[in-house]
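User: Sequence for Transcriptional regulator, BlaI/MecI/CopY family below. Tokens please.
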Amino acid sequence: MEFSDGELLVMEELWKGDVLDENGEIQALALSKILMEKYDISKTSCYTFFGRLVEKGAIARRYPRYTIRVLVSREDALLNKQIEAFHKLFKGSLLNICKTFLQNEEVTKEEIEEMKKLIDSFDEEEKEDQEEEKDDTKSN
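Assistant: Structure tokens for Transcriptional regulator, BlaI/MecI/CopY family:
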């Protein structure tokens, strides 16, 4: 999920949680006042951001008093951003990430050994999965 700068300001205020009531909600008017005071954003812009965030599924709006509730956690938004960057910058290739990182950063022998162990553990899991698939195929 991609957020504009203004949408991100709204989400950051909501994620902090200190503006939310005991039900995890806030009225749009109250949130717009906070954003206007803190960031000098116009009321119209605030409601534009709210509308976009509703369309994106990041927040829910409930009537009668235009009450807002967060639907997307900071962690989920960050994970989505990381996945987008991974695909955009490295064409979805873990090998490209490793090459780029190893060429541009100092890596200790200990870190290299840890990476090898990590790869080996994934390799072992893959072998186990393949064995299970063979067993499942034989039993059917």
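The longest helix spans residues 109-139.
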